[in-house]
Amino acid sequence: MQRLPSFLCLCVALWVLFGCRERNAAPESLGDTQDLPEIAAETLRLEMQSWPTVVRCQGNLLPDEQVVVGAKVGGRVDAVHIEIGDFVEQGAPLATLDQQEARLRVLQAQAQLRQARSTVGLLEGQSADDLNPENAAPVREAKAVWDEGIAGFKRAQMLIERNALSAAEFDQAAAAEQVAQAQYASSLNAVAESLALIGVRQAELSIAQQQLADAVVTAPFSGYVQQRGIAPGAYVATGQPIAVLVRTSPLRFRGAVPERFAQSLKLGQEVRLTIQSVPTPVTAAVTRISPMLDSRSRTLMFEAEVANKDHQLRTGLFAEAEIVIDPAARAIVLPESAIVEFGGTQKVWKVVDGMASEQPIATSHRRPGYREVAEGLEIGDLVLIDGDQGAVAKVTGPTVRSSLSTSRDEPGDVKDTKDAVLNDGKPTESPESMESTEDPTDEDSNVRASS
What we know:
Layout: H1 3-35, E1 38-40, E2 43-45, E3 48-50, E4 53-70, E5 75-80, E6 87-88, E7 93-97, H2 100-118, H3 137-161, H4 167-214, E8 216-218, E9 223-228, E10 235-236, E11 241-258, E12 270-274, E13 282-289, E14 299-306, E15 318-326, E16 330-335, E17 340-342, E18 345-352, E19 355-367, E20 370-375, E21 382-384, E22 393-396, E23 400-401, E24 415-416
Parallel strand pairs: 1-22, 2-23, 4-24
Antiparallel strand pairs: 2-21, 3-16, 4-11, 4-15, 5-7, 5-10, 6-9, 7-8, 9-11, 11-14, 12-13, 12-15, 13-14, 16-20, 17-18, 18-19, 18-21, 19-20, 19-22
InterPro entries: Beta-barrel_RND_2, MdtA-like_BSH, RND_pump_MFP
Family: Belongs to the membrane fusion protein (MFP) (TC 8.A.1) family.
Domain Multidrug resistance protein MdtA-like barrel-sandwich hybrid: 65-246
């Protein structure tokens, strides 16, 4: 009789234990269909988006031209006409040197030229090229003497044939004719020498006049004065720097791309420049490409011409450039709000048959507000736009969107390789080690705001 209550207690305990296990297992079997919660969330159906390939690099704005203006002649500085920051037009005087000695050399050269011209009878304003040597006064004189000698020789021939002239007198007439002929030839040579001397004197005068003009140092082009290197009263030697001029319209952006993008870089490709002190991006185009890569950095240098008509941009400014190397590229793109990151992993909430579940993914290129999907999703997949709403649940929502919203900056504007190359193509690290996911700006509104 005492064993019966013990047996009954054991049966009751077993019934309670197995009954509780059955009740706990019931939700597991029904969770996929009936007992899961419902969430109202907006979803996005993935499809290929315009996603141009963009290479990023960094560099500086350089002047279109920069020149050190030097003195062409030596001398004492009489006046300086510029200050740092002044804008000067082409041909404007920068400095004036002492001109007294140069003026005296001009006067001396002019006198020597007049002397040379007078020897051949050139009149004022008459060019030496217009002079016929036969018409020069010394030549005409020698020609007259020679003509007289020819006539005398002919008379001597007539007389000696009649035995009216001695042989000595005939020889004297023949010699006189030959001497006159030689004097005529010599006069022609003398005139030619005088004409050559006139050319020398003209060149000397031109040099003296040029030296006088060079005493005023002028601007070779229109631009700004970057440096001033002299002061009044100083003595400068030939070639000594007077000032540094820069032309800032247009400017040149100089950057470099890694070797793997060298073949993709073409003339005319669009370049978007971001400058910290400029509120809006500056658009330029690739205008020059180096014919060879830098053997140390393995980068290819290029230049882009930047319009600067209002001279608001200054040389030396640091800029980040985006070069659109493939405007027709396409990719699967996600808004960043759909991506959940934790512990170095990325996932989204993928919706299949109305039910949300976690889906691991990998992303590659990034821009503010968007990322390119590298793996884990395919065209046509549905994902929650707001990953923070994600849970294992049934998904209901008022809208299922088939494409990303179009805003001022479409996601297709920046397939970004993020290859940062610093300081005119000299990278601080190897190009492969400079991958980054940091973006300098965030111009895109939240994707959900435009639904």
